[in-house]
Amino acid sequence: MKKYLIFCTLAILTFLFGCEEEQAFRLHTAPEYYQGRAMLPSGQLIEMTEADRTTVLDACYPEDALALAPRGERRWIGTVTLSQPLTTNRSTQVFPTATFFEAENQTFVECQVDTITYMKQIDAVPDSLAAFRDQAVTYPAVAKLRNAQPHERLQFLKEMDKPFGNEPYPTRTAFEQTLVHVTMPFNGSFDLTFESSEGNERVTIPIDAASRQPFRSIGFGLESTEKMNAYGVYTSPNQEGYDEVRRPEDASFDRLLGVRQTETLPTTLVSGERYPLFSFSFMRDNVPHKEIVSITYHEPILLRGEALKREMRAEFSNRQHAVFHELALIGTESRDASFLTHVSADDTRFIFKAIERSKATTEPGEPASMPYLTVFEGICAQTFDVGYRGDDVVLTNTKTGSHFKLLRDDANKWHDRFDD
Length: 420
Known about the structure:
Layout: H1 9-17, E1 28-29, E2 35-39, E3 45-47, H2 50-59, E4 74-83, E5 97-103, E6 106-113, E7 116-122, H3 127-130, E8 137-139, E9 143-147, H4 150-160, E10 171-174, E11 180-183, E12 189-196, E13 199-206, E14 215-224, E15 229-236, E16 244-246, E17 255-261, E18 268-269, E19 274-284, E20 287-298, H5 305-316, E21 320-325, E22 340-342, H6 345-357, E23 359-361, E24 366-377, E25 380-389, E26 392-397, E27 403-405, H7 408-418
Antiparallel strand pairs: 1-25, 2-3, 2-4, 4-5, 4-8, 5-6, 6-7, 9-11, 9-18, 10-14, 11-14, 12-13, 12-20, 14-15, 15-16, 17-19, 19-20, 21-22, 21-24, 23-27, 24-25, 25-26, 26-27
């Protein structure tokens, strides 16, 4: 368990401050409660076994993280996304998103959760991914930029001319001379800066770890309806559709005056450097405006050491969930299983505090009508048998058989909250 103290906050407190008396909490990583899928470079999705999920959790343990990303081209093997169906909802970030790759004949993993990114050198990839290692796709270490070819510009015009959205379809207009083609690096993000005399506004094009694409076409276009005209930068990973559009907050205009591409474009985008792509001018409320659109590539900021551990603690310290259940949990259950009772956030906080305050006892209780309680914190979990001995509430660690009695006041509140 000590290895995962960083994810199990209560275990961290026990470790830091010490306690001679046995503690009720023995939270442990619980790959059995996860589901996992890997996205392969081909676009195929494969399921991760429990052994694979354990490998991912071990690989993303935030120790020995790299200060710098490996140099050279990178061969993407696959990206694994894990989720906990019993605790995850749409607003909860999954952990971790683990991208396995090779560089200079070494194997690495990039782990991401929310805004945290770190990399590690590892010995092996999950077994289910190893079978697809020969299908790895090579990515450049840097972002590359070029002008679109004539046939690509023609494709841009055709795609933007197709109906898109809901009826009545807006009219889309492409300006083929602005189209550029970006060879995407392995990770990071791009900023598009809309610069005018009134200030700068940036919009971001992320490189999605779970579905990264090696290329992206970027071009200027307009969208018109009976009510308004709007401009934006349209993008596509495959030169089809161009249904992804990035706009500044106020992209409305009355009349377009002109569009011009920058005379010289770089072939390589240095991280942090801003490069103009094109300029355009327009009228709005009888006032002429001019904007310059630039692109900036940003390498990810890698965390390591104490800074990484601090961020991870902050990220996971409040991820708590509790479930009462009539039957033992076997593998990954559906969140909606009829024998499960999910506990509210307020009751979950009470349960964690009550267990933390509980005292070791030698006597078990008689099984409650809802005999099991499983608590989750971060990537960790623990199951207790719930028992009553008179008015006392006794929780038994299902792995060790150790018994813990709640304090009298906590026991009274427990009966008030959960006996129904």
